[in-house]
Amino acid sequence: MKLLEMLQSRAETEDSYFSKALLKEDIARVETLMTKAKAANDLDSLMKDGLYIGWTKGDLRTGELREFLAPLMSAVFALQQGGSDEQAVIESWITFNQERMKVLVHCL
């Protein structure tokens, strides 16, 4: 998946310890989401299973990101179920990650 390749490439070249650690955690989260998407019977079940996999610390603020996480989960589900629109996954990741960073900054 191109998103994983992009995250792995950034993790390998990142100088910031914080950014590198977050990228490695994101890789694990995306891999978990991909596994859940492949096993899901439908998008609704993925929406339940994929919402709380550590997107924010203890998932305490993940609910605030639901509107941005839903398109990502939908795109990953479509891809894992045989779709081929990896660009939709990347675009939804970028939007989700931008909004998540705003939430994470408030957690510091």
SSE topology sketch:
Elements: H1 2-13, H2 17-39, H3 43-49, H4 66-80, H5 86-107
Residue share in β-strands: under 5%
Q: State the helicity in percent bands.
A: over 70%
Radius of gyration: 13 Å
Sheet having the most strands: none
Structural class: mainly alpha
Q: How many strand segments?
A: 0
Q: What's the tally of helices?
A: 5
Mean pLDDT: 93
Gap between N and C termini? 31 Å
Along the chain, the helix and strand elements come as: HHHHH
Number of domains: 1
Uncertain segments are none
Can you offer a commentary on this structure?
Helices cover 73% and strands 0% of the residues. The protein is mostly helical and 108 residues long. It has one domain. Helix 4 runs antiparallel to helix 5 (86-107). The longest helix is centred in the first third of the chain and has 23 residues, at 17-39. It is globular. The termini are far apart. 20% of the residues are buried. The mean pLDDT is 93.
Question: Concise description?
Answer:
By secondary structure, the chain is mainly α. It has one domain. It has five helices and no strands.
